[in-house]
């Protein structure tokens, strides 16, 4: 699958439930396999957990360079500024959202009731 095909496929997905139970290890391993199949090392860019994944992949020597934008802290580092807590409260305060992945778009065709 080419990169463009993979991007189109990822953008066409609307149901996030297949990734709801994946951990950071499984996600990093997935990208590790993709990057190792490439002819040359890519530039890796990630935000939040993507930034953490970027750091892990670069630590493994898999990228030519990388940018981690506001990366999530590694396991064991507890730092949450008030602004993060404030923005996250609506999703985190609902116990029905535990162990589920929800789309972050308002115009998503999937509603929370459809993911249960």
List low-pLDDT spans.
none
Mean pLDDT: 79
How many domains? The number is 1
**Secondary-structure element sequence?**
HHEHEH
Shape: globular
Radius of gyration of CA atoms, rounded to a whole number: 16 Å
Q: Distance between the terminal alpha carbons, to the nearest Å?
A: 31 Å
Major β-sheet, in short? 2 strands, parallel
Strand content: 5-15%
Say what oligomer this is: single chain
Number of strands: 2
How many DSSP helices? 4
> Structural class, judged by helices and strands?
mainly alpha
Which percent bin holds the helix content? 25-40%
Strand order of the largest sheet: 1-2
Based on the model shown, name its key terms.
two-stranded parallel sheet; mainly alpha; 116 residues; 4 helices
